[in-house]
Design a protein that fits this description.
The chain is mainly beta and 181 residues long. It has helices spanning 2-16, 112-122, and strands spanning 26-32, 36-43, 46-59, 64-84, 87-97, 99-106, 125-136, 141-158, 161-179. Strands 1-2-3-4-5-7-8-9 form an eight-stranded antiparallel β-barrel. A hairpin with a 3-residue loop joins strand 1 and strand 2.
């Protein structure tokens, strides 16, 4: 069995050299405030990415804890504007989907129905419009910052009540970009 594991490991390393080249030209990793992270893949000015927001809190007096992980897969397009030496500016537009994962613990009681209501409220569709500036340190590494507007909407159905939610806010994003061209 040990011999078989070594053969499998060697075969895996040999085959890893035959993997296709990733389909993106640039990878961007960023932070949004204190509780958000972002990864974006850029190919021919087309964006593919995922934003992840996390938050949670505990109320020790009432034995209550709430935590949430919110995934926001997104696609979009970047429109290059002016360039001067190492400085580039751009607009970008994206559409996104919000997928929430919520956990609520209230003194050991079942909160499944309440968690489902929260997920229904937070499950939204949205778009982002932003203006960004990128500074290229060299051909492979750059730093960028985006300032934009995020608009989200949802139709909520909780126990027969039909509600509509709309949420708009500004955001900033600081990113470190790696170019693979």
């Amino acid at each position: 069995m040990k011999y078989m594991m070594h053969v499998l490991l060697v075969f895996s390393f040999v085959q890893s050299g035959n993997l296709p080249e990733p389909p993106w030209d640039e990878i961007s990793m960023g932070i949004m405030g204190g509780s958000g992270n972002s990864v974006t893949f850029l190919n021919n000015n087309k964006l593919y990415g995922l934003d992840i927001l996390t938050f949670g809190f505990d109320l020790k007096e009432e034995n209550t804890s709430i935590s949430a992980y919110i995934l926001m897969p997104r696609i979009g397009k970047r429109f290059t504007l002016r360039s001067l030496n190492r400085l580039n500016s751009y607009y970008k537009g994206e559409i996104n989907l919000i997928i929430p994962f919520v956990s609520i613990d209230i003194d050991g009681e079942s909160t499944t129905e309440f968690e489902d209501d929260i997920k229904d409220i937070v499950d939204m569709l949205g778009f982002k419009l932003a203006y960004g500036i990128e500074y290229k340190f060299n051909e492979q590494l750059s730093f960028s910052t985006d300032f934009g507007f995020n608009y989200l909407w949802n139709n909520i159905d909780i126990e027969g009540s039909d509600l509509s939610a709309r949420l708009g806010h500004t955001y900033t994003l600081l990113s470190l970009n790696y170019s693979l061209e």
